[in-house]
Amino acid sequence: MASTSSSNSNSDEDEGIERETRHTRRIGRFNKRSQAIMPRLSASTGGWLCVLLPLALASRYLHTTPSACVDLDHLHQMLTVAAVGMCVETVCFFVYMFVDTGILTKCVISLLPGAITSIFYTLFLQTSRTFAVVAGFLITVLYQHAYICILRGFPYTFSFGEAAILVQGLALFVISCIYRFGQMISQNWFVAITEFEELNVIMLNALMWLLIFCVLMRQIPPLRRPGPFYVLIGLLMLAVTCMPVTSPLPVLSLLNFIFADTKRIQVIMFYFVLVGLTCLTVSWQLGKQNANTRIRKIFHLLIVLVFVPGLLFQCSLLYMATGIAVAAFVVLELVRLLDIPPLAVPLAAAFESFKDEKDGGQLAWTPMCLLIGCSLPIWLTPCPCAGGGDNTLVLLSGILSVGVGDTAASLVGSKLGRNKWHGKGNTRSIEGSVAFVLSILLAVWLMQFFGLLAMTQAKWFATIFAALNSALVEAFTDQVDNLVLPLVFYILVGLA
User: Fold this and answer.
1) Where are the alpha helices (DSSP H) in 381-429?
2) What is the DSSP string of 150-176?
3) CA separation for the pair 441, 464 (Å, rounded)
4) Average pLDDT over residues 446-471
5) Which terminus of the chain has fewer Cβ atoms in its 10 Å neighbourhood, N or C?
6) Bridge partners for 429 per DSSP
C-alpha cells in the first residue's frame, strides 16, 4: 500500500512538473513574439476568463424587463456585442501568438474579430453598415492595443485572462461614457432624468476624468512629481464636482441626494465607521509579520457589512459609493506607486504587509479585485436599483461568492481541512468547498427568513447550482478568485 501511494505521488508530481514545463515553454515562445510580455508567474494563462464578461452581459440582458429600463436597453445591446467582439479578439490573439500558423491564416485571424463585431452590430442593432464596420474594427483594434499595453506596463501582475477582464471592463466603461454623454449633448445637455440616472451620470463623469488623469500620469513623466500631481488632483476634483453634467451642479445634486433621506445619512455614518475600522485593522497589522489568510478575510467581512445594507435599503447610495471607493483606491494606489508624500510610505508598508502570493507585480491587484468583484454585479445590471427587489439576488452575487462563500472556505479549510483536492500544489480542501456552499445557502435562507430577499423555487435551484459550481472554481482555479467568482456566480444565478 505504501509503495502504491508513493508511486501515485511521484506520478502526480512528474505530471505537474511536465505541465509546468509546457506552460513555461509556451510563455517563452510567446515572449519571443511579443517583446517580453510578463504575465504573473504563479498562474496559468487563464484564457477562459475572457468569456465571463460577455456571458454576464448576455445572461442579464436576456432576463431584464425592457420596460423597466428602456433608455439603457440599446446601450446594453451595444455593450454586449462589444464584449463579444473583444472576447473573440482575445481568443484570436492567443491563437496568433501561441500557435504556429501561416501568414495567410494570421491575416484572417487579425481581421476576424472586427468582422464578427461589425456583423453583430448590423444584425442585432440594425445600425448602418458604415457605423458597424468602423465601430467593430475600432473597438477590437483599440482593445488589443490596450491589452498589450496593460500586460507590458504591469509585469508579473496579471494572468492573460485577468488582464482581458480588466481591459474589457475599461473599454465597456469608455463606450458607456461616450454613449451617455453623446445622448445628453444631442438632447440639449440637460434632460429630465431619474435620481439614479443623475447619480449614474455624475459617477461616469468622475471616473472618466480619473481615467484621463491616469493616462496623463502614464504618458507625461514630469506630472509624476508631487507638485504637478497635487495640482492635477485639484483640477480633477474641480471637474468632478463642478462640471455642468447635471442641473444643479454635481456637488449640489449629491448634497440634495444625501440630505433628502434620514436613513441615507445613517447608512453613510455607518460606512464611515467601517472605514475607520479598516484603517484600524491596517494600523494594527503594520509592524507585524505579513498578514495570513485569516487576517486578510477581515476585509471580506467588512465589505459584506458595506454591501448588504446598501443593496437591501439604499441601492442608489451604494451604487455611488462603489464609484467613490474605486476612485479613492486608484488615487491612493497612484500615490504609492509614484512615491508621492506624505502617504506613500505608510501605503507601501500596508501593501507589503497584506499582499499575498497572487500580488506578483507592483500593483495591489487582489485588494482591488475584492472591491471590483463585489461591485461588478451592480455595474453590469441595467437599472440595478429598479424592479422592486427582483434583482437583489443577482446583485448579491459578489458578496455571496467572495464575502460569504470564499471567507467560509478559507476559515474552515485552514482549521478543519484534512482532505485536499487532487492536483499539484492545490491546497484547497473538500471541507472548505463544503463550507463555501453551505455558508451561501445559509446566508440566502436567513435573508429570506427575515423578509429581506424574495426567493422562488427557480431562484433556489439557480442559487444551489451557482454555489456548487463556484465552489469547484474556487477549489481549482489559480486566478484571482476575488475577480472570477463573482462573475461565475452572477452568470449562473442569472439563470433564474
Assistant:
1) 392-395, 397-398, 407-416
2) HHHHSTTT--HHHHHHHHHHHHHHHHH
3) 7
4) 92
5) N
6) 420
Element (H, E) at 384: none
The identity of residue 230, as a single letter, is Y
Q: What is the largest CA-CA distance in the chain?
A: 80
Q: How far apart are CA 271 and CA 291, in angstroms?
A: 24
Is the confidence at residue 100, as pLDDT, over 80?
no
- Residue from 347, 328, 331 nearest 286 by CA: 347
**Judging by beta carbons within 10 Å of its beta carbon (0-12, 13-18, 19+), is residue 278 exposed, middle or buried?**
middle
Q: Kindly state the cell numbers that stand for 129.
A: 453598415
Q: How would you class 14 by CB atoms within 10 Å of its CB: exposed for 0-12, middle for 13-18, buried for 19 or more?
A: exposed
* pTM across the whole model: 0.88
Instruction: Take residue 304 and report the three cell numbers written for it.
Output: 459584506
Confidence of residue 3 (pLDDT cuts 50, 70, 90): very low
Structure-block grid coordinates of residue 324: 467613490
Q: Which range among 32-46, 250-264, 344-358 shows the weakest confidence by mean pLDDT? A: 32-46
What's the pLDDT score for residue 63? 66
